[in-house]
C-alpha cells in the first residue's frame, strides 16, 4: 500500500497543461487538489494543509514556467521550496547553560521513544560536544523503565541516576541535579515518563520538575508516524510546559512523516534531531529539505548520496566507471561492488531512498534478500582467478565444481552469469547515455539480481 | 424510533445480563470521552451550522473525518455512500443525518463479515497468542493486561519474553508477570527470540498451560531482516504445535496516522495477523484509522486499550465503539425527538 508521491500524482493533471507558458489559476487549482491529497496521505494536519495550499497557490499563479522545467515540475518545486522553508532552519544547535549543569528534559506520549532517545542524545553530547552527561531515570510509572535506562547507560558507559520507583520524580530530579553539580557533570538529561497530553495530574508533575531548575532545553519526543493528532499533542505539551525543540523518532520506517510539518507549524519550535534506527548512534540532525522531499514522496536522494559518499572511494569509483565503459568489468569488481553496497546498509532501505523507486517496474515490491547476496559472493569466491576475469571459459565441469564449492546449484550459477552479462550491457548503456545526453533509461536485471 | 435510540436501549438495557454491558459501555464512554467530545461536538456544530444538506455540508463533514485519521480513500468511499443514501432517502435537512452517518460507520466496521472479535482459542489444549507490532505501540503492556483478563476467566496463563533486543523489555514483562501472577519464560537479553519461543512452548506444554502469550521486539515493518526474524519465530511456534499460533495480534497505536495501514498490511503478509489491538485509545482524539483498516484489510479489531490499569483492555465491539463516539449526539437527538413529540 505504498502511497503515490506528489510527482506521480501530478502527472495526470499535467498532461493537459503541457506546453503552456504561464501557470494559470485553473491549473493551480487542479494541481493543488493533488497537493492536498498528497499532504493528507502523509499525515499532515488538515488545517496545516489548508493554510499551506493557500499560500502556495498564491505564489504559483502567474509564475513563468521555467524553460528547464515542465509546469508540473515547476509546481512541485514551488511546493517543495515552500515546505522546506516552513520546516525551518537547518541543524539547530543545542543551547547550553552558561552555569552548568545544562538541564535537558525529554517529554512526550507513551512509546514515542524517550528513553532510547535519551541514550542517543547523551551519546551525541559526549562525542560531538565533548560533554559529560548524567542520565536521570525519572519514569517511575512504566514497569522496568528505570532498568531500561540503566541498561542503555551500561551500553554507553554513561552514569545513570536512579532512585527506584518509590520516590517522586520531582525529588529524583532534585537530587540528580545536586549530584551532577558535585560530580561535575555538565549536562543532565531527564527521562520523564510518557504521559497523555490530556492528563492534567501528570502534566502538573512536568511543570514541577521544570520548576526545580529552569531547563535549557525541553525536547518533545514525537513518533514520526503520528497522525492528525500530532498538532494537539504538540500544542498541549507546548502550552503546558513550553518546549524548546522536537525530536522526531522512528523516521527509519516508511512513514511519510507529515507530523513533522504539523508540529512545526503549530508550535514554531525547531525539529532538532531525528531518530534513524535502533542503534545508539542513530540520532541525526534534522534536514528540512530532505523532510520536504520525503513528505511529498519524492525520495531521499540526499541521504542516499551521503551514504554512498561515506562508503565509496572516489578514485575507485572512477576506475570502475572506466571499466564499465570499456566493458572490462570483472567478477572481482563485482565482488567489490557487493561489498560496498553491503556497507551502505540493508539494501531495501537504500532502494527506498531512490526517488520514484516505487515506480520502477519490479522494484515496488522488491524484497531484497541479503542471503542471496551472500550466495552470489560464495559463487564468485569459488571461481579461479582466470574464471573471474574471463567468465566465458566457464563450461559444464567448471560450473559443477563451482556449484559444489559454493554450496549452490548450476542453475544458480547460470542465473548469475546471465545477470552479470545483463548488468554489463546496462552499464554500457548508462555510460553511453551520460555522454550522449539524457534518454530514458531502463534498468534491466537490477531487481532480479537480488531475488 | 431512531437508530440512536435503539442503540441506547440495547446498550443500557435493564436486564441483569445487560448490566455488565452497561459497565463496559461506560468504560468505552469514559475512555473515549476525548474522542467523543472532539468528534461529536464537531458533528453537532456542523449540523447546527448547516440546516440544509448541501455540498458545503458534505465538504465539512469530510474534513471532520479526515481529521479523525480515517484516511483519504476510506473517507471518499464513505462520503460517496452517504451522498447516495441522502439522495435515496431524500434527506434535505441536517437534523437526522447523524443517524445516517453512524449507520454508515457501523456498516463499514462490519463490512459483510461476521463478528470475530472473540479470541479463537483451543477449548482444552494449549493455545498460543503471538504479539507483533512496531516499536512503542504497547505490546508488552497489552500482554500484561490480556494475561490478567484471561487469568480472570480461569485460564492458566504463561508469558514468553520474546523481546530480547530492547533494553529492559524482559524486566518489563517480568513485572507484569509478577503483577498478574503468571509465570514468565525468559532468557538473557540478546539471545535468539526463536529459541525463547521454543523453550516457552515446551514449558507450556509440559506444565499444562492453557494460554501462552508471546511478546516480540518492536520492529518497523520495512526492516526486512527483522521481519524475517519474525517469520522464523512464527515458524518455530507452528512447528511445535500444528495450529499455533492460534492468534497473531498486531498492536497498533491509535495515534498513528496512515502508516498504520502499511503496518497492518506488512505484518499480515509476514505473520498472518488474525486481529488488531488498538492501544492508547484513551488519549487520542482520533481512532478513525480503525475504519480504514477494517475497510481495506478486513482484519478485525479484537481489543482496545483504554488506559494504563490492568483491566483497561476491553474487547472491541463496533457498535459500542460507535456508540461511544456518538453518545452525545444520541442524547441530543433524543431531546429533539421529545421536543417534537410535544
TrEMBL record, chain A:
Keyword line: Cytoplasm, GTP-binding, Hydrolase, Nucleotide-binding, Ribonucleoprotein, RNA-binding, Signal recognition particle
- Among the Pfam families in the record, one is SRP_SPB
- What's said on domains? Composed of three domains: the N-terminal N domain, which is responsible for interactions with the ribosome, the central G domain, which binds GTP, and the C-terminal M domain, which binds the RNA and the signal sequence of the RNC.
Q: Where does GTP bind?
A: 108-115, 191-195, 249-252
One function term, GO molecular function aspect: GTP binding
Gene it is expressed from: ffh
Which reaction(s) does its UniProt entry say it catalyses? GTP + H2O = GDP + phosphate + H(+)
Name of the molecule in the record: Signal recognition particle protein
Subcellular localization is given as:
Cytoplasm
EC number(s) per entry? 3.6.5.4
Give the InterPro entries listed for this entry.
Answer: AAA+_ATPase (IPR003593), P-loop_NTPase (IPR027417), Signal_recog_part_SRP54_M_sf (IPR036891), Signal_recog_particl_SRP54_hlx (IPR013822), Signal_recog_particle_SRP54_M (IPR004125), SRP (IPR004780), SRP54 (IPR022941), SRP54_GTPase_dom (IPR000897)
- Map out region (Disordered) in residue numbers: 432-451
**SUPFAM superfamilies, alphabetically?**
P-loop containing nucleoside triphosphate hydrolases, Signal peptide-binding domain
Give the record's GO CC terms. Answer: signal recognition particle
Q: Which domain of life is it from?
A: Bacteria
UniProt key word Oxidoreductase: no
Q: Which NCBIfam families match?
A: ffh (TIGR00959)
Subunit-level organization = Part of the signal recognition particle protein translocation system, which is composed of SRP and FtsY.
Which GO BP terms, alphabetically?
SRP-dependent cotranslational protein targeting to membrane
- Domain (SRP54-type proteins GTP-binding) spans 270-283
What is the organism of origin for this protein?
A: Psychrobacillus psychrotolerans
PROSITE patterns in the record:
SRP54
For the keyword Cytoplasm, the answer is yes
Function, in words: Involved in targeting and insertion of nascent membrane proteins into the cytoplasmic membrane. Binds to the hydrophobic signal sequence of the ribosome-nascent chain (RNC) as it emerges from the ribosomes. The SRP-RNC complex is then targeted to the cytoplasmic membrane where it interacts with the SRP receptor FtsY. Interaction with FtsY leads to the transfer of the RNC complex to the Sec translocase for insertion into the membrane, the hydrolysis of GTP by both Ffh and FtsY, and the dissociation of the SRP-FtsY complex into the individual components.
Q: Which family does it belong to?
A: Belongs to the GTP-binding SRP family. SRP54 subfamily.
UniProtKB/TrEMBL annotation, chain B:
Domain of life where this protein originates? Bacteria
Q: What is its main location?
A: membrane
What function does the entry list?
Involved in targeting and insertion of nascent membrane proteins into the cytoplasmic membrane. Acts as a receptor for the complex formed by the signal recognition particle (SRP) and the ribosome-nascent chain (RNC).
Its Gene Ontology molecular function terms?
GTP binding; GTPase activity; signal recognition particle binding
Q: Where in the cell is it found?
A: Cell membrane; Cytoplasm
Q: Which residues form the SRP54-type proteins GTP-binding domain?
A: 300-313
Q: By its UniProt entry, which SMART domains does this protein fall under?
A: AAA (SM00382), SRP54 (SM00962), SRP54_N (SM00963)
Pfam families, sorted: SRP54, SRP54_N
Q: Which GO terms describe its biological process?
A: SRP-dependent cotranslational protein targeting to membrane
CC terms in the record's Gene Ontology section = cytoplasm; plasma membrane
Q: What is its EC number?
A: 3.6.5.4
Give the organism's phylogenetic lineage.
Bacteria, Bacillati, Bacillota, Bacilli, Bacillales
The keyword Nucleus is annotated on this UniProt entry: no
Reaction catalysed by this enzyme: GTP + H2O = GDP + phosphate + H(+)
Q: How does it assemble?
A: Part of the signal recognition particle protein translocation system, which is composed of SRP and FtsY.
Can you tell me which family this protein belongs to? Belongs to the GTP-binding SRP family. FtsY subfamily.
Any idea what this protein is called? Signal recognition particle receptor FtsY
Topology in the lipid bilayer: Peripheral membrane protein
The membrane spanning regions, by residue number, are none
* Database matches in InterPro entries: AAA+_ATPase, P-loop_NTPase, Signal_recog_particl_SRP54_hlx, SR_rcpt_FtsY, SRP/SRP_N, SRP54_GTPase_dom, SRP54_N_sf
The cross-references to PROSITE patterns, in alphabetical order and at most eight, read: SRP54
Mind listing the UniProt keywords for this protein, alphabetically?
Cell membrane, Cytoplasm, GTP-binding, Hydrolase, Membrane, Nucleotide-binding, Receptor
Residues the entry annotates as binding GTP = 133-140, 215-219, 279-282
Amino acid at each position: 500500500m505504498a502511497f503515490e508521491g506528489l510527482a506521480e500524482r501530478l502527472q495526470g493533471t499535467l498532461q493537459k497543461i503541457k506546453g503552456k507558458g504561464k501557470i494559470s489559476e485553473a491549473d493551480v487549482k487542479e494541481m493543488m487538489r493533488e497537493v492536498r491529497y498528497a499532504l493528507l496521505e502523509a499525515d499532515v494536519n488538515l488545517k496545516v494543509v489548508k493554510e499551506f495550499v493557500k499560500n502556495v497557490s498564491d505564489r504559483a499563479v502567474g509564475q513563468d514556467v521555467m524553460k528547464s522545467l515542465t509546469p508540473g515540475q515547476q509546481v512541485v518545486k514551488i511546493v517543495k521550496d515552500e515546505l522546506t522553508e516552513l520546516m525551518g532552519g537547518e541543524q539547530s544547535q543545542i543551547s547550553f547553560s552558561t552555569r552548568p549543569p545544562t538541564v535537558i528534559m525529554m517529554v512526550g506520549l507513551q512509546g514515542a521513544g524517550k528513553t532510547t532517545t535519551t541514550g542517543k542524545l547523551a551519546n551525541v553530547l559526549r562525542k560531538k560536544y565533548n560533554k559529560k552527561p548524567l542520565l536521570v531515570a525519572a519514569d517511575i510509572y512504566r514497569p522496568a523503565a528505570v532498568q531500561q535506562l540503566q541498561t542503555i547507560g551500561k551500553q554507553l558507559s554513561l552514569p545513570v541516576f536512579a532512585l527506584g520507583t518509590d520516590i517522586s520524580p520531582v525529588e529524583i530530579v532534585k537530587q540528580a541535579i545536586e549530584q551532577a553539580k558535585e560530580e561535575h557533570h555538565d549536562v543532565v538529561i531527564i527521562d520523564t515518563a510518557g504521559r497523555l497530553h490530556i492528563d492534567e495530574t501528570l502534566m502538573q508533575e512536568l511543570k514541577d520538575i521544570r520548576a526545580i531548575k529552569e531547563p535549557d532545553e525541553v525536547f518533545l519526543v514525537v513518533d514520526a508516524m503520528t497522525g492528525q493528532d500530532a498538532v494537539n499533542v504538540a500544542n498541549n505539551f507546548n502550552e503546558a510546559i513550553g518546549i524548546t525543540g522536537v525530536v522526531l523518532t522512528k523516521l527509519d520506517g516508511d512513514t511519510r512523516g507529515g507530523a513533522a510539518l504539523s508540529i512545526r507549524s503549530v508550535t514554531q519550535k525547531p525539529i532538532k534531531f531525528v531518530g534513524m534506527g535502533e542503534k545508539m548512534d542513530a540520532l541525526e540532525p534534522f534536514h528540512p529539505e530532505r523532510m520536504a522531499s520525503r513528505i511529498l514522496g519524492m525520495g531521499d536522494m540526499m541521504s542516499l548520496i551521503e551514504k554512498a559518499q561515506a562508503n565509496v572511494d572516489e578514485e575507485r569509483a572512477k576506475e570502475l566507471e572506466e571499466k564499465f565503459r570499456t566493458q572490462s568489468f570483472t567478477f572481482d569488481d563485482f565482488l567489490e561492488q557487493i561489498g560496498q553496497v553491503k556497507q551502505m546498509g540493508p539494501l531495501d532501505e537504500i532502494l527506498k531512498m531512490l526517488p520514484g523507486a516505487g515506480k520502477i517496474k519490479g522494484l515496488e515490491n522488491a524484497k531484497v534478500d541479503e542471503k542471496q547476496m551472500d550466495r552470489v559472493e560464495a559463487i564468485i569466491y569459488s571461481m579461479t582467478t582466470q574464471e573471474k576475469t574471463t567468465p566465458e571459459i566457464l563450461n559444464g565441469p567448471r560450473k559443477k565444481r563451482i556449484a559444489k564449492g559454493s554450496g549452490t546449484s548450476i542453475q544458480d550459477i547460470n542465473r548469475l552469469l546471465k545477470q552479470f552479462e545483463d548488468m554489463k550491457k546496462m552499464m554500457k548503456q548508462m555510460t553511453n547515455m551520460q555522454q550522449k545526453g539524457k534518454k530514458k533509461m531502463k534498468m534491466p536485471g537490477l531487481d532480479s539480481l537480488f531475488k | 424510533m431512531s437508530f440512536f435510540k435503539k442503540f441506547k436501549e440495547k446498550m443500557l438495557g435493564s436486564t441483569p445480563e445487560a448490566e455488565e454491558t452497561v459497565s463496559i459501555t461506560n468504560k468505552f464512554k469514559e475512555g473515549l470521552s476525548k474522542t467523543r467530545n472532539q468528534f461529536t461536538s464537531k458533528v453537532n456544530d456542523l449540523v447546527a451550522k448547516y440546516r440544509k444538506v448541501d455540498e458545503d455540508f458534505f465538504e465539512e463533514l469530510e474534513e471532520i473525518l479526515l481529521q479523525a485519521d480515517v484516511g483519504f480513500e476510506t473517507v471518499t468511499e464513505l462520503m460517496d455512500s452517504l451522498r447516495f443514501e441522502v439522495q435515496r432517502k431524500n434527506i434535505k435537512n441536517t437534523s437526522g443525518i447523524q443517524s445516517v452517518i453512524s449507520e454508515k460507520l457501523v456498516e463499514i466496521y462490519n463490512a459483510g463479515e461476521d463478528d470475530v472479535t472473540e479470541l479463537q482459542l483451543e477449548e482444552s489444549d494449549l493455545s498460543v497468542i503471538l504479539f507483533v507490532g512496531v516499536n512503542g505501540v504497547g505490546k508488552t503492556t497489552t500482554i500484561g493486561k490480556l494475561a490478567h483478563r484471561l487469568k480472570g476467566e480461569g485460564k492458566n496463563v504463561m508469558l514468553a519474553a520474546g523481546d530480547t533486543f530492547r533494553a529492559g523489555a524482559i524486566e518489563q514483562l517480568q513485572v507484569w508477570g509478577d503483577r498478574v501472577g503468571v509465570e514468565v519464560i525468559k532468557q538473557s537479553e540478546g539471545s535468539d527470540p526463536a529459541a525463547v519461543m521454543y523453550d516457552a512452548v515446551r514449558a507450556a506444554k509440559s506444565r499444562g498451560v492453557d494460554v501462552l502469550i508471546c511478546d516480540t521486539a518492536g520492529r518497523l515493518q520495512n526492516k526486512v531482516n527483522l521481519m524475517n526474524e519474525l517469520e522464523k519465530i512464527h515458524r518455530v511456534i507452528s512447528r511445535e504445535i500444528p495450529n499455533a499460533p492460534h492468534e497473531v495480534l498486531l498492536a497498533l497505536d491509535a495515534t498513528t496516522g496512515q502508516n498504520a495501514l502499511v503496518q497492518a498490511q506488512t505484518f499480515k503478509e509476514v505473520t498472518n495477523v488474525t486481529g488488531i489491538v488498538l492501544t492508547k485509545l484513551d488519549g487520542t482524539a482520533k481512532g478513525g484509522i480503525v475504519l480504514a483498516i477494517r475497510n481495506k484489510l478486513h482484519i478485525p479489531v479484537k481489543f482496545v486499550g483504554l488506559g494504563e490499569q490492568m483491566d483497561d483492555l476491553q474487547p472491541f465491539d463496533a457498535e459500542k465503539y460507535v456508540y461511544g463516539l456518538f453518545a452525545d449526539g444520541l442524547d441530543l437527538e433524543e431531546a429533539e425527538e421529545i421536543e417534537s413529540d410535544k
